[in-house]
Write a structure and sequence with these properties.
By secondary structure, this protein is α/β, with parallel strands linked by helices. It has 2 domains: about 120 residues, no CATH class; about 200 residues, von Willebrand factor, type A domain (Rossmann fold, 3-Layer(aba) Sandwich), CATH 3.40.50. About 25% of the residues lie in helices and about 20% in strands. The protein is built from 9 helices and 15 strands. The strands form 3 sheets. The chain has a 6-stranded mixed β-sheet with strand order 6-5-4-7-8-9, with helices on both faces. A 5-stranded antiparallel β-sheet has the order 1-3-10-14-13. Strands 2-15-11-12 form a 4-stranded antiparallel β-sheet, with helices on one face. Helix 2 packs antiparallel against helix 3 and helix 6 runs parallel beside helix 7. It starts with 5 loop residues before the first strand and ends in an 8-residue tail after the last strand. Keywords: Signal. It comes from Sorangium cellulosum. This is VWFA domain-containing protein.
């Protein structure tokens, strides 16, 4: 299995407080003996003592770790878990000139979209792989319709325990998507150019296409009033600002057919395209609906695309999309040797065993979160997943 689809989410296979500290990403110095020897938790004795084989300090050895559950987690073994088949979430971000429109006193539309994408990458960490492209790319005033391109290749998300400041996936994603919007909206040409790259990615891939307007930049396009962008946006004092047909230029006519076709080609390769329309795109609801239908991601009722009227809600919309493809299953590298002695913690909070609203075994080596626990994970509100054995499994009452 490739490293982008399978990687470790927690340091495990270690004993005592040091193992807990490493898995949580805190300093090992937190495990230094404070002179107090704490008794094991009630019911936690089974498996709590290691045999005296010379590999671990004896109970009277002051250099040894404190009792295994001293940090609050019952058990003496934190299992190494792997995120298998993490989905590839590939952002295709509209960086056309209209994305410079102010969305708040200090931020443009593009700023707000980029910030929401960065937050999602940070919150979901190792649950996803992430990549990004912008469109157009390297556009100028004289060449506003250059196709977009990739600015961040698909990369595994940050591990739960974090990483070196400035070198994390989140930090690099943020830097790579720092673009000054300019030019038109060459959606079809961009998606066509990206198709070979996206099709070559292993595992499940989805595209999140965020835009504030309709696609254009088709140099061969001519259009009547219904497909003329100035008319659509009610900025035309004449019957048809794109007349005579064919003289409107690449930014004048809506590039509906080629864009829908480009999305349909991605969907035919198993790459679903989620269309997100932010404020500014309301004039183009019908074409965004067609794009969502072609991408295989239409919602049950119109609008079929993900319509965002308030950019304050964009983060929750992106989380909803990601939650459709994020898995709540964890493979254990070192499954527990004994049944009924395993517990699951989300951010050190116990999740009871419950086949409907907690967790269960999918196989002897796969733990699956369900119900509220799964939704909490998918929402990006979990900083650490720990699977620990050595104490009786806590069952929901």
């Amino acid at each position: 299995m490739n490293t982008a689809a399978k990687r470790r989410a927690s340091v495990g296979g270690v004993l005592g407080c040091l193992g807990v500290a490493l898995a949580l990403g805190v300093a090992p110095s937190a495990c230094e003996d404070d002179g107090e020897r704490r008794p094991p938790r009630s019911g936690g004795g089974q498996g709590a003592q290691e045999p005296d084989d010379g590999l671990f300090p004896g109970p009277e050895d002051p250099s040894g770790p404190p009792p295994a559950d001293a940090d609050g987690l019952c058990g003496n073994r934190i299992h190494e878990v792997e995120i298998t088949d993490a989905p590839n979430i590939y952002f295709v971000l509209d960086a056309s000139g209209s994305m410079l429109s102010p969305a708040s006193s200090r931020a443009t539309r593009y700023d707000r979209v980029r910030d929401a994408a960065v937050d999602l990458v940070s919150n979901l960490g190792p649950l996803i792989n992430v990549g990004a492209a912008v469109f157009p790319l390297d556009a100028t005033v004289d060449a506003p319709c250059r196709p977009g391109g990739e600015v961040f290749p698909v990369t595994p998300g940050d591990p739960f325990a974090g990483g070196e400041e400035g070198r994390t996936t989140t930090a690099r994603f943020r830097a790579a998507t720092r673009i000054e919007p300019i030019g038109g909206t060459p959606t079809a040409a961009t998606l066509t150019a990206l198709t070979p790259t996206l099709a070559a990615l292993p595992g499940k891939t989805i595209v999140v296409l965020a835009t504030d307007g309709g696609p254009n930049c088709n140099s061969a396009a001519g259009c009547d009033a219904e497909e003329c962008i100035a008319n659509i946006e009610q900025q035309c004092p004449e019957e048809n600002c794109c007349a005579p047909r064919g003289l409107s230029g690449p930014e004048g006519c809506l590039d509906r057919d080629d864009t829908v076709a480009a999305i349909a080609r991605l969907a035919a390769r198993g790459i679903e395209v989620y269309v997100v329309g932010i404020p500014g795109s309301e004039f183009y609801g019908d074409v965004l609906d067609q794009m969502a239908l072609a991408g295989g991601t239409a919602q049950f009722v119109s609008p079929f695309y993900f319509k965002v009227d308030d950019l304050d809600t964009l983060g929750s919309v992106l989380a909803k999309i990601a939650g459709i493809v994020v898995s709540c299953e964890f493979d254990l590298v070192d499954p527990p040797p004994e049944d009924g002695q395993t517990n699951v913690y989300l951010d050190r909070e116990l999740v009871p065993y419950n086949p409907e609203n907690g967790w269960r075994w999918r196989s002897p080596a796969i733990v699956e979160l369900l119900g509220d626990a799964c939704q909490k994970l998918k929402s990006g509100r979990v900083g650490q997943v720990q699977i620990v054995s050595g104490c009786p499994t806590e069952v929901a009452r």
